[in-house]
């Protein structure tokens, strides 16, 4: 029996039934209201000091040079709470990943074209945040790494799978997946509300999270991160929660 689908945000379903002519439309523009409503406004001045301290540290490490903006890390959304999709429970938490053989599994069930393209862009050894989505308090709980680059997602051909796609052909599969392995838990849970507080402050002062896709393309289940975005979010695990 295959593992439950790793596609965790409902927005990714939107592209599934679109004809091939619409593949060029690779982004979902509708905000993820479930997560957006759970996020909070930033406490006044709480983020800027953190950003300045982080920036000072980074400048001392790099000689003040600006990093080239490239996507080399990722954020993977997964649902930690039970939810049935066509009779199948799609729950998959980081604890479920840790319970897999070698703490490794495939990340299947992605049915959004841009998210699929991000999967195909992943490189061996790259790290990603494991993000609990569509739950009481969304946020980052751990880190995983890519241990196998993109290959055809077998669930697209399985008629019993909730993400079966009758329009996909084995000679030219539409959908891909990668294998991921657990690296570690973050030192503390980093909630969406806290990340959003920094994002809003960075929009005003030019910080690294100003264009973070978690807020500009909320519904994508697979999201790229720049080195600066990844490093800044990771630095939050060292701070006391607000």
From TrEMBL:
Composition-biased stretches (Basic and acidic residues): 10-28, 56-65
Principal place of residence: nucleus
UniProt name for this protein: Thymocyte nuclear protein 1
Superkingdom of the organism of origin: Eukaryota
Alphabetical UniProt keywords: Nucleus, Phosphoprotein
Matches recorded under InterPro entries: 5hmC_binding, EVE_domain, PUA-like_sf, THYN1-like_EVE
Coiled-coil zones: none
CDD domains linked to this entry: EVE
Subcellular location: Nucleus
EVE domain segment(s): 73-235
Organism listed in the record: Fregata magnificens
GO cellular component terms, semicolon-separated: nucleus
Region (Disordered): 1-65
Keyword match Nucleus: yes
Pfam families linked: EVE
Keyword Phosphoprotein: yes
Described purpose of this protein according to its UniProt entry: Specifically binds 5-hydroxymethylcytosine (5hmC), suggesting that it acts as a specific reader of 5hmC.
Annotated Low complexity bias: 41-52
């Amino acid at each position: 029996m295959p593992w439950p689908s790793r596609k965790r945000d409902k927005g990714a379903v939107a592209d599934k039934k679109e004809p091939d002519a619409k593949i060029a439309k690779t982004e979902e523009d509708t905000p993820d209201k479930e997560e957006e409503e759970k996020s909070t406004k930033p406490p006044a001045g709480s983020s800027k000091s953190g950003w300045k301290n982080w920036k000072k540290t980074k400048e001392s490490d790099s000689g003040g040079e600006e990093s080239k903006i490239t996507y080399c890390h990722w954020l993977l959304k997964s649902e930690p709470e039970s939810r049935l999709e066509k009779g199948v429970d799609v729950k998959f938490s980081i604890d479920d990943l840790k319970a897999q053989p070698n703490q490794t599994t495939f990340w299947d069930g992605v049915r959004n074209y841009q998210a699929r393209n991000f999967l195909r862009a992943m490189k061996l050894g790259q790290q990603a945040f494991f993000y609990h989505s569509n739950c009481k308090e969304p946020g980052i709980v751990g880190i995983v790494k890519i241990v196998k680059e993109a290959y055809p997602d077998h669930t697209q051909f399985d008629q019993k799978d909730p993400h079966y796609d009758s329009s996909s052909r084995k000679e030219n599969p539409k959908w891909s997946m990668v294998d991921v392995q657990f690296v570690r838990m973050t030192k503390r849970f980093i909630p969406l509300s806290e990340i959003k507080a920094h994002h809003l402050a960075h929009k005003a002062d030019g910080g690294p999270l100003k264009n973070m896709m978690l807020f500009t393309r909320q519904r994508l289940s697979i999201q790229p991160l720049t080195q600066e975005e990844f490093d800044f979010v990771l630095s939050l695990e060292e701070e006391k929660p607000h």
